[in-house]
Design a protein that fits this description.
seven-stranded mixed sheet; globular; NUBPL-like; 10 helices; ATP-dependent FeS chaperone activity; nucleotide-binding; alpha/beta; ATP binding; YlxH/NBP35
Length: 253
């Protein structure tokens, strides 16, 4: 089988074997980008990972904002329309012709309540990407988010540490504002893959505010390169999970 980007066609061949949830016609993999709390850069991560998958790995990628009343994704993608229906998520999954996509990236609402649980059960997710800062309080919520996905049998793609450190643009000194290495330790404790660190850079904020993701606006920056490395590891995890489904036992009733 010919493979683009670490064997994603395998996921297309065997996505029907995933348990539960609604599959979307023509979409090979659906991944959730989630956090246990707001304010950790989840939406920024979702946007830049989606752009990296499309730009660097030449995949057909869709981006679904599941936090339909939140401003993050529309602002970062320079969109201005507002949802007009109560069943917006139902319309966006069942009522949208997404076409043939390799990956649909879903920016989940923050938290671990009924809305997040419902979305996790409604969609046939290939996996979930957990985003957190190194701060202890954020990592507590990240653990809750990971456990929620595990309870509904959604594989964890890995944990990303956002805002890992700030590098002074003048002297180059690194400052670990939110703590150091917390996400990696949490990933090890919870038997999750650690997918990488995204530094805290001004250009991420300015690009997001202007609707220009840093992976496009400043592709050679440390942050853009970090997002690209995370995107590569996501594709590798999708391949591994597809192979695991292929090797798993066949269950017949």
């Amino acid at each position: 089988v010919s493979s683009r980007c670490s064997g994603l066609p395998l996921a297309r061949c065997y996505s029907a074997a995933a348990k539960g949830g609604l599959s979307i016609s023509g979409v090979s993999d659906i991944i959730a980008v989630a956090s246990g709390k707001g304010g950790v850069g989840k939406s920024t991560t979702a946007v830049n990972i989606a752009v990296a998958l499309a730009k660097e790995f030449k995949l057909k990628v869709g981006l679904l904002d599941a936090d339909i009343y939140g401003p993050s994704i529309p602002t970062m993608m320079h969109l201005h329309e507002k949802p007009e229906v109560m069943s917006a998520l139902e319309k966006m999954t069942r009522g949208v012709a997404w076409g043939n996509l390799d990956v649909l990236v879903v920016d989940m609402p923050p938290g671990t309540g009924d809305a997040q649980l419902s979305m996790s059960q409604r969609l046939r997710l290939s996996g979930a990407l957990i985003v957190s800062t190194p701060q202890d309080i954020a990592l507590i919520d990240a653990r809750r988010g990971a456990n929620m996905f595990r309870k509904v049998q959604v594989p964890i793609l890995g944990l990303v540490e956002n805002m890992s450190c700030f590098k002074c643009p003048k002297c180059g000194e690194k400052s670990y504002i939110f703590g150091e290495g917390g996400a990696q330790r949490t990933a090890e404790d919870m038997d999750m893959k650690f997918l990488g660190e995204i530094p805290l850079e001004i250009d991420i904020r300015t690009g997001s505010d202007e609707g220009k993701p840093i992976v496009i606006s400043s592709p050679d920056s440390a942050s853009a390169q970090a997002y690209l490395r995370v995107a590569e590891k996501v594709t590798q995890r999708l391949k591994e999970l597809a192979e695991e489904r292929l090797m798993g036992p066949e269950i017949s009733l």
